[in-house]
Amino acid sequence: MAWSSASLLVFLVLLASPYLGCSYHTSYTHGGKHYTVRSNRDPRQPQQSCSLQHSEPSSSADGVPVVHRLSPCSPLGNGARKQEEHPSVADVLRRDALRLRSLFGADNHGSPAPSPLPGGGGSDDGVSIPNRGAPIEELPGAFDYHVVAGFGTPAQPFIMGFDTHTTGATLLQCQPCAANQPCGHAFDPSASSSIAQVPCGSPDCPFHGCSGRSCSLNNTFIGNVSFVTDTLTLTPSTTIGSFRFACLEVTPSDNSSGVLDLSRNSHSLASRAPSPPGTVAFSYCLPSSPGSVGFLSFGAAMPMPHKAIYTPLRKNPDNGNLYVVDLVGLRLGGPDLPLPPTAIARDTIVDLRTTFTYLKPGMYAALRDGFHRWMSRYPVAPPLGGLDTCYNFTGLDIFTVPTVTLKFAGGADVDLSMDEMMYFSDPKDHFSIGCLAFGARDDTAVIGSRVQMSTEVLYDLRGEKIGFVPYRC
Ligand SMILES: *[C@@H]1O[C@H](CO)[C@@H](O)[C@H](O)[C@H]1NC(C)=O
Ligand SMILES: *[C@@H]1O[C@H](CO)[C@@H](O)[C@H](O)[C@H]1NC(C)=O
Ligand SMILES: *[C@@H]1O[C@H](CO)[C@@H](O)[C@H](O)[C@H]1NC(C)=O
Ligand SMILES: *[C@@H]1O[C@H](CO)[C@@H](O)[C@H](O)[C@H]1NC(C)=O
After folding, report:
1. The pLDDT of residue 87
2. pTM value?
3. Which listed ligand is nearest to 381 at the C-alpha?
């Protein structure tokens, strides 16, 4: 997209240059095709200096810095060493399956299945606490992206995941911790001058069954869950007073301290962070590679109309906490992909913790078959851990794939980059096995985090719409 005829020149120059070394690739897009060309020049950006301040909430021009779990800049540390922990496709698909089951509540015995507590269920203010296992999944990369947020007065900084579909509350490990749990990164309520217990019976207490003075419950699987309010510091200039969150005595398995709730719940950050007229409630840009830094911002000015494209948010009567849009079609290589009306899901969830994108079977089949026709000159590779539309690009000097565009209601056509639409067996070398990063699902379609990378996704809750600004980080 960003490349046009100038890129064609670059392409021709690349074709003419000798492939000394030949160990890199260059990608660009022109006329409905993504080109990948073998190159002897390292196209990667110089390594970030990782000057992020993890000891306190920080801000960049765009908001709170967001980094990938495997980034050398990750506040979880040792990012470079963790490169080998890169999850396999099978791991990612398994994690996606768990996530999809918990999104749709069809799982009554898997570990992350939420069990609605009294006062929970489908209501906007309901809270579901996992009924078994850890509240945060065990597989590597449970939360791929993290930020630093401060709780209490003075602010105690913690590394937090963030999620648009949560159990209905921001979760934070607090002291005292359970006896068998690490406690080095837990909030210390006694060191905060602004902390308050939510009283049992208060409208802010989702546990209608609690007894005693405080809004707390001893959950069989994760122990004491206790609701408190305190000041939340997102950036030095963005604070939220009396922010309600749930104190847990257990630690998330990804070594962070908790999860920020960005759902549509009335206690979520999306609802509580200041957002004056002319601003969006929140937006994020997920970094496109572990080496780069994205952002999470609250109450940022709405971008100029020509910069962002918008699609209306749909109401979801089953779960008011979800962000649902209408995916009306696809384009492949430029033109619309012909689709039978039954292939269109209408309700499509925008999710942060599903990695791949799942389409209704009819839409997926049309994409797979259309892609397959385009790609007939390339050797087909066996399925990769469940992704079934794969090609072997090993040994080639150049290859082209048709671009995929997601068409949302309201004319929001989102073009996907090569890394957003394809998964490569070697993420650093496209001359490996490349598969369409999509899957099929019977009921509701889900837009995963992979296709959102490098695009700023704006949540304009006042205007009831979601916007996209491509190539933003
Ligand atoms: C949970 O912990 C809080 C804070 O330590 C305490 O006040 C509350 O009584 C505990 N609740 C239960 C059910 O154990
Ligand atoms: C909470 O429940 C656990 C497990 O059922 C039990 O061992 C523990 O003593 C309980 N704690 C309180 C404060 O009731
Ligand atoms: C969490 O930290 C511990 C101790 O530093 C380490 O052994 C473990 O691998 C870490 N887990 C993850 C998921 O990074
Ligand atoms: C891909 O192609 C290369 C070169 O032709 C071959 O050596 C390799 O085994 C193929 N890999 C797969 C998974 O088909």
Report:
1. 75
2. 0.86
3. 4
